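Q: Given only this backbone (477 positions), what sequence would you predict?
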C-alpha cells in the first residue's frame, strides 16, 4: 500500500440476512458510480413519505450564519425583494413547495439516507433568512425505499411540487422518465445510474454524466507508482451495475493513464471465502487494486490479504469507503480513499462546512454528517441561487434555463469546483489516506494546494469512447 510519507466472511443464515447483503452490494456499486460516500449509515429521523410542512425559521443558536453567507458564497436566500404570484406548480405568494426523494428505509439502512436530514437543514437555514425572495420553503419528503424510486417519483409528480432538491436514490433510473414527462426540474445531491445522470431536466452540484470519467486519480497514481499500474486489478460483484462501473473505470484508466489490468474478475455477490481470490491476486503479482463493493466486503478482502501476509503497493478506494469505521481494521493502513467534498477532518479550516454542520445539528440532530449530506446541502444552495435570480417570474422552465447558466460551483467551499450548468464530469479530486485509526490528507498535501484544496485540471476527465447503456429519447446532454 502507499505509505503515509509517500508523495502524494461468511454468509449469514436466513433469507433476510442474504437479502440484506445483496442489497448492500447493489448499493455499493451504485454509490461508486455516483461517487458517493458515508461517514455513518442509517436512516434520518422524521418526514413521512409525501408529507410536507413548514420548516423552522429560527436561526441557529448563537447567531451563527445569520448573514446568510456560506463560506465564499454570497447569500442566496432572503426576503429583501419579495416575490408575488402563483407562477407555477408549488408556488404561491408566500410559499414555495419542494421535495426530496431518498432511500430512508427498505431492506437495509443505507449510507445515502442522511441526505434527507441535510435537505431539512438547508430548508431551515434558508427560511431563517426569509426563504426565496420572501417565499417560505415547504419541504415534502418521499421515501424511495431502495427498490421503490418509481413510486416515489410518481407521488412527487402527483403532488405538484415545484422542484426536487437534494434528492438521491440508488436506483434513480426507475423514475427518470417519469420526472421528465411530468415537467419536474431536479437539483440532485447525486445521481447513481447512467440514465439519470444524463437526464435533460436534472442538475447536480457534483455532476456524474456516464459519458465522462474522472481519470485524475488514475493519472496521479500512474505518475507516482508507475510500476504498480502495470500490475493492476479490479474486482466487482457479479451484478449489472458492478459490471458497468468496472468496465467504465477499466476503459478510462487504460485509455488515459496507461493502466495494465492483469486481473479483472467479478466476484460472487456474497463472497464466502476471500482466500482463493487473494491467492489469485498474489499469483498475478498485483500491485494496485480496487473493488466495486461494500465497506464490509472490502474489509473482508483486506483482512484476508493481511492474513495471507500480502500487501499490494496501492489500495485505491472510492468515496464510499470514506467512513470512520474503516481506519484501524487489518490491512487498511495506507489505503487511499477519494472524496469530492471538504474532509470533515478539516472542518475547522472551512467556514462553509461549519455552516452545514451547525444547521444539520440544529435541524436533524440524529442525522450523521456525510459527504452525500454535504452534496445535498450544496444542491439546496445551487437551487436557491437559481430560483432567487428569477424573482417573481418563478417557473420550472425559468429555473431550468437559469441553472444552465451556472458554470462554476463549489457551494462556497463545501466541495470540489464543478460545472453543473453543462453537466460536466468533475475535473477535481482529493485523496485521504488511512493512517492508523484515522484519515489524513494525502493529496494535495495541503488544503491550499491545487484548487480549493483539490487537484483540479481539465485533463482529469475524459470522454468515454462508447456507450454503456441505451438512453430514453431526449436524454443526453
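A: Predicted residues:
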Amino acid at each position: 500500500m502507499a505509505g503515509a510519507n509517500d508523495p502524494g466472511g461468511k454468509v449469514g443464515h436466513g433469507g433476510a440476512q442474504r437479502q440484506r447483503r445483496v442489497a448492500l452490494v447493489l448499493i455499493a456499486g451504485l454509490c461508486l458510480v455516483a461517487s458517493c460516500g458515508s461517514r455513518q449509515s442509517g436512516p434520518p429521523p422524521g418526514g413521512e413519505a409525501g408529507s410536507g410542512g413548514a420548516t423552522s425559521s429560527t436561526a441557529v443558536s448563537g447567531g451563527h450564519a445569520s448573514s446568510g453567507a456560506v463560506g465564499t458564497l454570497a447569500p442566496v436566500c432572503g426576503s429583501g425583494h419579495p416575490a408575488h404570484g402563483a407562477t407555477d406548480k408549488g408556488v404561491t405568494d408566500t410559499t414555495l413547495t419542494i421535495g426530496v426523494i431518498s432511500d430512508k428505509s427498505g431492506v437495509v439502512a443505507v449510507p445515502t439516507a442522511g441526505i434527507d436530514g441535510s435537505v431539512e437543514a438547508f430548508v431551515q437555514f434558508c427560511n431563517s433568512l426569509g426563504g426565496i425572495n420572501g417565499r417560505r420553503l415547504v419541504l415534502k419528503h418521499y421515501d424511495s425505499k431502495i427498490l421503490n424510486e418509481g413510486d416515489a417519483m410518481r407521488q412527487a409528480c402527483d403532488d405538484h411540487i415545484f422542484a426536487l432538491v437534494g434528492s438521491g436514490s440508488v436506483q434513480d433510473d426507475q423514475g427518470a422518465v417519469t420526472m421528465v414527462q411530468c415537467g419536474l426540474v431536479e437539483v440532485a445531491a447525486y445521481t447513481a445510474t447512467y440514465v439519470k445522470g444524463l437526464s435533460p431536466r436534472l442538475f447536480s452540484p457534483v455532476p456524474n454524466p456516464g459519458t465522462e470519467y474522472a481519470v485524475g486519480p488514475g493519472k496521479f497514481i500512474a505518475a507516482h507508482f508507475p510500476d504498480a499500474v502495470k500490475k493492476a486489478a479490479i474486482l466487482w460483484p457479479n451484478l449489472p451495475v458492478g459490471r458497468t462501473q468496472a468496465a467504465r473505470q477499466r476503459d478510462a484508466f487504460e485509455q488515459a493513464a496507461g493502466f495494465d489490468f492483469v486481473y479483472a474478475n467479478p466476484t460472487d455477490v456474497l463472497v464466502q471465502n476471500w482466500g482463493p481470490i487473494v491467492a489469485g491476486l498474489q499469483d498475478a503479482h498485483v500491485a494496485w487494486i480496487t473493488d466495486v463493493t461494500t465497506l464490509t466486503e472490502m474489509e473482508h478482502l483486506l483482512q484476508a490479504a493481511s492474513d495471507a501476509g500480502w500487501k499490494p503497493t496501492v489500495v485505491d478506494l472510492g468515496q464510499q469507503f470514506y467512513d470512520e469505521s474503516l481506519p484501524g481494521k487489518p490491512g487498511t493502513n495506507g489505503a487511499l480513499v477519494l472524496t469530492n467534498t471538504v474532509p470533515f477532518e478539516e472542518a475547522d479550516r472551512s467556514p462553509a462546512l461549519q455552516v452545514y454542520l451547525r444547521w444539520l445539528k440544529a435541524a436533524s440532530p440524529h442525522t450523521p454528517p456525510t459527504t452525500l449530506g454535504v452534496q445535498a446541502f450544496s444542491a439546496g444552495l445551487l437551487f436557491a441561487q437559481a430560483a432567487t435570480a428569477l424573482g417573481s417570474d418563478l417557473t420550472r422552465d425559468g429555473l431550468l434555463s437559469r441553472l444552465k447558466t451556472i458554470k462554476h460551483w463549489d457551494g462556497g467551499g463545501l466541495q470540489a469546483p464543478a460545472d453543473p450548468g453543462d453537466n460536466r464530469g468533475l475535473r477535481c479530486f482529493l485523496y485521504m489516506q488511512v493512517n492508523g485509526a484515522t484519515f489524513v490528507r494525502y493529496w494535495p498535501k495541503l488544503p491550499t494546494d491545487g484548487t480549493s484544496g483539490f487537484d483540479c485540471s481539465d485533463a482529469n476527465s475524459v470522454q468515454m469512447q462508447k456507450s454503456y447503456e441505451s438512453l430514453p429519447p431526449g436524454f443526453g446532454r
